Amino acid sequence: MKLDCKHIWRELSNYLEGDISDEVRRDVEAHVAQCRHCAALLDSTHNVLVLVADDRRMELPVGFNARLRARLEREMAIAGPD
Amino acid sequence: MVDAAAQKREKENGLIENVLKGRHEDFHELIAPYRRGVYLTAYDVLQVQADAEEVTQEAFLKAFRALRGFRRESQFSTWLFRIALNEARMKLRKRREVPFETIFPDEDDGGDYAPTMLADWREIPSEALLKEETRRLVRESIAALPEKYREVLTLRDVNGKNIAETSEILGISIGNTKVRLLRARLLLRDIFVERTQRKLKHQPRGVSP
Question: Residue A71: its chain B contacts at CB < 8 A?
Fold first, then answer.
């Protein structure tokens, strides 16, 4: 089946997930090969997601783990799980 | 072959048993792999470091107190992220009394979507921006997403939860999770592209794509 652009947009996320049947994947790739708009959309969405994943290796606030531990220990000293 | 996931689960179950039997200190080990993820989730909902840290602490405290109620049919991490997400939402609601869902219509299949500005770019011109500018733009773009899109994106694309777990944490169907994720990703891309282009227009750096 030939897919139009709107179908491609709808499948874009599943395509990036790899959560897509072989048939639809081939259709998407055939479409993208001849549609520069959809190719650009696919590439740029992929790139943004890479940036997101990359950026989010962000540092925890200084002392975060120690404060968490201290708070939990205060609680544990008072009572256990209900 | 030993399944790594099953092994992890077994270890977690052991730690949970210990905590319930009174070895409270094992709780630290139990949650250690999730501290960062829970914080990032809270941060993405709240966008303020101090609030995110407070919510993270509250979520772990709540998990500790409620540990006996954890039913083993879901993963511990799923249960934990649900608690964290609820805490973060409550905090956000306290901060802002406007209901959010009304601003955005319910899920649809994404078929109405039309991407903005499909003119000249093929890729995000990340090389044209300084690294820290790119990072800032990414953060701002995530912050600009409506809450429900930020949540699904954080769980799936930041924390790397799979679709099934993401749907369980959010308490929505797998189908809705996929649709919401699609919209979140497209919307994020649109926002990011728009901001990047605006930036490049105002601050030309002499880098051609």
Answer: 57, 61
Compute the distance between CA of residue B31 and CA of residue B145 in angstroms, rounded to an integer: 29
Specify the pTM.
0.74
Angle between helices B76-95 and B4-20 (to 10 degrees): 70
ipTM of the complex: 0.79
pLDDT per residue as tens digits for the range B55-81: 999 999 999 999 999 988 889 999 999
Average pLDDT value for residue range A56-74: 87
Residue B103, judged by CB atoms within 10 A of its CB (0-12, 13-18, 19+), counts as: exposed
Q: Does B158 touch chain A (CB under 8 A)?
A: yes
